[in-house]
Fold this protein.
Amino acid sequence: MFFRSGSRSRSRSGSRSSTSRRLDPVQAHQRAAHGQAVLLDVRETAEWEAGHAPDALHLSLSRLVAGGALPPAAQGRPVVAICRSGRRSRQAVEILSGRGTNATDVAGGMVAWARAGLPVAGPDGDDGAIA
């Protein structure tokens, strides 16, 4: 069993887990818009192409797992990972944190992003869809 303490979980033994505070879509959008973090979409290419946050960078989780480097614009900056529902972005946060990157993710992913009424860009600048 885990108990919440600040932004990280503590087990009964008091050891810290690597769970970080998740952001809601509006918080993530504000951080990216104000230059406080880079939004990194970790979905696969077909999902990204169907629709993504307008200013997000793309690096699929499969490439990240295979050792892929962050895009140059994200290197050395805080990262907010996003996927479709929030599961892959949690995996990305674990990998990035292990590499020394300050990373968190968006609870609910792009589904929650779209439900919050935030913009979704698609091919050729059209309104995108969440795949």
